[in-house]
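We modelled the chain as a single entity of 293 amino acids. Its sequence is:
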Amino acid sequence: MVLTSKTAIRRRFRGTCARVHRFSPAFTLVELLLVVAVIAILAGLLLPVLARARASAAAASCLNNTRQLTLGWLLYADQSNDHLVYNLGLDKRQPIPSGNRDLNWVNNIMSWELDSDNTNLAFVAKSPLSPLIGGSAAIFLCPSDQVVSPVQRSAGWTRRVRSYSMNAMVGDAGPNVQAGGNILNPGYRQYLRLSDMESPTSTFVMVDEHPDSIGDGYFYNTIYDRQWVHLPASYHGGAANFSFADGHAESHRWQSGLIRPPARPDVTVLPQTVTSADLADYYWVALRSSARY
């Protein structure tokens, strides 16, 4: 019997489909495991790259923050007949002539307790630099600074509100200023006016400070007897960011591990005497803090 053309076509089509279905390849268990292994290897290669990219972006953002704060600091001097903004050691409750603590460049004091200064952003609006930097709270905080104490974490805190301090030898330090110097650093100049600086390119203004060291906004070390009173940060691959009185900013990597304690609470006891191992790091900071009379 001769099949019609349509019937023949249908049978041939069904036969072809059956053969295709019968011989279509499928992944074996070995092949699936191989694919999973390749994906895991690629992820292992990419994740460190992504982590480094995030760290690099955070370091760049922090560097820019120090620069922006210093540009605001320069504008303040320009609008104040060359006078620099108040910079007091508020931990010592040092008065300023008007008695108004809000005249200081920042008026909050950081701690590892549940004090409101750790989270209250009111200091941003009160800072004399605020209108000159757009009133941005983010400029006062390094993106890598997410350190809180156990009691703060238990309270739901994820970070504090400030990461930066100002060179103690820059600005009006109130009663610490005597005869053109600072009584905390005898023999070294206290810069009250921008024009007082002989070398603004090598005099730092802002620094990101170690979280266990930062309290007020006053970054102070005793230059004359080699003591760390405050420590710079080392969030960025063992480096800290500094901005300078000419408006530029730079990152400096520390040579000694002694100046790079982990970023966590109560990790160091200050003040501490400078050792031979961290002498180069200390002098790098000291020589950029102030000059002798």
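As a brief sanity check on the tokenised model: The chain has one domain: 29-286. Helices lie at 5-23, 29-79, 122-126, 150-154, 279-286.
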